[in-house]
Amino acid sequence: MTVYCVSYDLNKHGQNYGALYQELKNSFSWAHPLDSTWLISTSESAQQLTNRLRSHLDNNDTLLVIKVTSDYAGWLNQEQWNWLRNNI
Prior knowledge:
Layout: E1 2-9, H1 18-25, E2 29-34, E3 37-42, H2 46-54, E4 62-67, H3 78-87
Antiparallel strand pairs: 1-3, 1-4, 2-3
């Protein structure tokens, strides 16, 4: 499995996040450490994951999918750090 950092901006005022959230949660394993950032563990490539999520975004939204390596730092809660350690 590979872990990807998925970050997005939904630019339409009042846009419904529900369908996108559900699609992200359909992944093998996930964490949601920041408002518009998820960590997704999947056997998909970055392009396959992008394609799967794209159907839940509007044309004016933005999406970034980046592979996560073991070189990371930040301020998260202990549960989120544990998820990272267990999935990378």
